[in-house]
From TrEMBL:
PANTHER family, per database record: AGENET DOMAIN-CONTAINING PROTEIN-RELATED, BINDING PROTEIN, PUTATIVE-RELATED
Protein name: Agenet-like domain
InterPro entries in the cross-refs: Agenet-like_dom, Agenet_dom_plant
Pfam family, one: Agenet
Database matches in SMART domains: Agenet
Domain of life: Eukaryota
Domain Agenet: 1-70, 74-131
Upper classification of the organism: Eukaryota, Viridiplantae, Streptophyta, Embryophyta, Tracheophyta
Amino acid sequence: MAFQERQRVEVCVRIETLPTSYYAGNIISVLNRNEYIVRYETRWKPNNSTELLAEVVKEADVRPFPPTPDVIPTIYQNGDRVDVYYGGAWRIGTVLNRVFPLYKYNVRLENSGFNLLCSFYRIRTHQEWINGNWITPAALPPLPPPVPRWR
């Protein structure tokens, strides 16, 4: 998919042993068919906390900004795949349980085993951008079980 200047997007950042993160940003320049310069909305230049980071990213790591969820909050069930807004990015996780009577959820982040207690407004249904369409987890095949890490 070709993106255009000033288009709002999410950039996937993958770091081993950390949860996959999606940072919001805007395309500020199209370099070629496969590369863009993106200015992030919540990532800052190193050693300069007053200027937003802009960097070259590959098209494979860019997706359009997901559609806005319904106004009515979703009630998530144990095991639902969700995105959690944490540390300026959306991170993929799994709902462990809902905390009553609060509208909060315990969520385990993928690839890290880190658990968060999240308010409902910091959670959205996880979606994948596949072949130009947004696909929800119900339409995706189940994930394989995690591979144990030997220490």
